[in-house]
Specification:
The chain is α/β, with parallel strands linked by helices. The protein has two domains: 122 residues, 3-Layer(aba) Sandwich (Rossmann fold); 229 residues, TIM Barrel, CATH 3.20.20.450. 41% of the residues lie in helices and 19% in strands. It contains 15 helices and 13 strands. The strands form two sheets. It has an eight-stranded mixed beta barrel with strand order 6-7-8-9-10-11-12-13, surrounded by four helices. A five-stranded parallel sheet has the order 2-1-3-4-5, with helices on both faces. Strand 3, helix 3 and strand 4 form a beta-alpha-beta unit. The structure holds guanosine-5'-monophosphate (G) and manganese (II) ion.
Length: 372
């Protein structure tokens, strides 16, 4: 991490100025927000390594900000800054995983030490190996390469439709499936491929299968998931990939992870893909690792709100506010917003009301072996 990015929320302008200067001198990049609403707009853009927030503010308070953070990110550390911590906010803070309280007035040393600790802790949490990887490591001795080969041989594509708000069919997302019992879950299959250095083979096979499905292309666009390493793999960029002949009908879904934030190569590759006619979707926005910020240069055509944000959005006002801010930001940038993972009519109602353009989820249609 070059310069950790701190979102600093406080309605006291003098305090913000002082704290900001301290942190900037300490090597941090600081974005100030003058109240909870401004903080939510910032969070919608994403890309922060730490949130430092005042607790008592008019409008949305620090606990509301923390809730908004947790609605999209389990790992982003939050530090509370307060003049008088009440028991109530302390309990809620612990419950929602706030890192620490700093008491105002804060000594410079205390502030810097706490911020450094919290940023490091957030970093550790993000680098935790995903559960799928641990599962695959357990299979090492039990014939993982053979299981992976069987999965490759039994690969198939499940198709899940995306609808416009008026109910008309807009596209299908191609979802990876295999019949190998040990590797049925896609995240586990992907972890196995990564472990075996065969992500390229897997992606290649998926894209070939997708390209061969005339029926899906007959009824709209086709969304295809990429893993970050696919962007380093030249097969997509050369004529060798049969999907390229259909690029104008394909939307490549990228889940943003650390490499993209580093900029450079990956971003250029995305530009190359767009020049070939592919459109780009930013997948799982709001899942924590995805943010709009590092995509500024790419400007995705579509953004897919993660299902964690959509889940119970009709019952959780904070999620509603967060999605409202995200939709606003996307529409300002000319980006089409997809709400995915819709399971209940209440969720659908709210995302429609908030202006999401396209809808996907079990409520509307489950993934199926045959496109609609
Ligand atoms: O990371 P990505 O968004 O591409 O993951 C899509 C996965 O989510 C697919 O495996 C798909 O089967 C699953 N999925 C699609 N719609 C829903 C839904 O409404 N609820 C849940 N829980 N999962 C869904
Ligand atoms: Mn996807």
């Amino acid at each position: 991490m070059s310069r950790p990015h701190v979102l600093l929320v406080d309605d006291d302008r003098d305090l913000v100025d002082v704290t900001r200067e301290l942190l900037e001198d300490g090597g941090y990049q600081v974005t100030p927000a003058a109240d909870g609403e401004a903080a939510l707009r910032e969070l919608a853009v994403g890309g922060h390594d730490l949130v430092v927030t005042d607790v008592g503010m008019p409008g949305l308070n620090g606990v509301d900000v923390l809730k908004a953070v947790r609605a999209r990110d389990h790992d982003l550390p939050v530090v509370f800054l307060t003049g008088n911590p009440s028991l109530e906010t302390a309990i809620e803070a612990v419950h929602l995983g706030a890192q620490r309280y700093l008491l105002k007035p804060v000594a410079a040393n205390d502030l810097l030490a706490t911020v450094a600790d919290a940023v490091a802790e957030g970093q550790r949490r993000r680098e935790r190996p995903p559960a799928a990887m641990l599962q695959v490591e357990g299979m090492e001795s039990a014939g993982l390469p053979q299981a992976f080969d069987r999965a490759m041989d039994s690969l198939w594509i499940a198709w899940q439709p995306l609808f416009r708000r008026d109910g008309s069919l807009f596209a299908h997302e191609a979802l990876l499936r295999s019949r190998e019992p040990a590797l049925v879950r896609p995240p586990v299959l992907l972890a196995a491929a990564e472990r075996l250095g065969r992500l390229g083979d897997l992606g290649d096979r998926v894209r070939r299968k997708v390209a061969a499905e005339d029926r899906a292309f007959g009824s709209g666009l086709v969304f295809v998931n990429l893993v970050p390493s696919d962007l380093r793999d030249l097969s997509l960029l050369t004529g060798r990939c049969p999907l390229t002949a259909r690029a104008g009908s394909v939307v490549l879904e990228i889940t943003e992870q650390a490499p993209l934030a580093e900029g450079g190569d990956v971003r250029e590759r995305l530009m190359d893909l767009r020049a070939m006619g592919y459109r780009i979707a930013l997948d799982d926005l709001g899942a924590g690792h995805s943010n709009l910020n590092s995509f500024a240069a790419v400007e995705p055509d579509f953004v897919k709100l993660d299902m964690a944000l959509v889940r119970d959005i009709d019952r959780e006002p904070i999620k509603r506010r967060l999605v409202r801010a995200m939709v606003e930001t996307c529409h300002d940038l000319g980006i089409t917003v997809v709400a995915e993972g819709l399971e209940r009519p209440g969720e659908r109602e709210v995302v429609e009301e908030l202006g999401c353009d396209l809808l996907q989820g079990f409520l509307l249609a489950r993934p199926a072996a045959v496109p609609l």
